[in-house]
User: Fold these one by one.
Assistant:
Number 1:
Amino acid sequence: MLIVRTSFVVATAVALGCGGGDSGSESSGAATGSRVTCVVTEMAGGTTIYTLCEEGTGFYADQVRAACSRPPATTPGAPHAVINSDPCPRANALGACTITTNVGSFTGWHYADGTTTADQIAMICAQTGQMFIAP
């Protein structure tokens, strides 16, 4: 069964959420409008079961920053989100879906979870009108 969690930034094009994660600390290099990265990790029983990393520039940077800066989740096992200005990691990446508009760009990196393949991510990118980026 294919399970892919789609970023709210892509799903709504206005970045309404980042998966309900905990707030992290933003590095000093993430000025308004510059690149902002949100890494969302979901754990179960001490094991990472899912990771998604979102990068935004321009308008999308502001949206990723706002979505990733939500109050900490109180539900045990809820996804944990960290915001910074570093590029998303490429280790274990299956690929990314990206969209560029006149107001900025958004890229959502998906990582190996044992159930999803790079071909499935590429198919989802195509179905949502986004460009696939191989790691």
Number 2:
Amino acid sequence: MLIVVVLAGCGSASVVEETEENEGVVEESTDEADESADEEEESAEEVENIESADNYKYDSKAGTLTSIADDEVVYTNEDYKTTVLYPQGVQGNKLIVWKTMVDNSPGPCFSIWTTVSEYKNLFYIDLEAEDKNLERYLVPDFKVKEAEKWVEDCIEEIQ
């Protein structure tokens, strides 16, 4: 027996052949699920494009993070006497920054991309938002793997 299920208002349909194994079980296939998968693929492509943050500078005396291109203050660090914001990359409209203590000196083979899960101090600023706030940044898997390889190579080189 062939069963066609049409979900009203969704513009999607599912065709299921009923067998003894799936009797009474309805499988759903929706356009929304397909669109969601497409969006995930697109966002994965965007994620892999983390550009340099060389167009941004941090003034530790004033606590300001500034765009060099237009000399505009992007964010003011209220804790500037004890913490520093290091621009790390730009992903779309997100400026990724590492917030750490002023006196932090992690060593030559340190990578913020691999230790972020331990310290939780990688943030982003939405450059298009009116209210610029620090939001937690989740490092993409490809970046973690890339950084882990770099750390391994660095350690081998200095030994």
Number 3:
Amino acid sequence: MRPAGEIRQAILQAAVDLIEEIRQSSKEGRKGPTLDEIAARAGVARRDARVCVSNCKRAGALQIVGEFRVPKRNRPAAEYAPVQRGDLFDTMPADSGAAVLGMFMQSWAR
């Protein structure tokens, strides 16, 4: 697997920074930053951020944690949060094949 590119690193770091700020301020029951907030914090064009966030979602690095009603918009905006790697295998028994394979793949990728 090749290393993450500059845009992906910036997007993930922005998501981590913003999730901490939002949870500390706990404004309006928000659960995470929106795509526009992540793009603005990362200093990336919105179009590039949209593609990168979509790829991060597909790869399992980001997940949708809620929806936020944006003024002057009919559709709610998705709120994103980074996936905690420990959460992936907490729901499976420790000796299940998927958990063992997942732990092996995590250690092999390092």
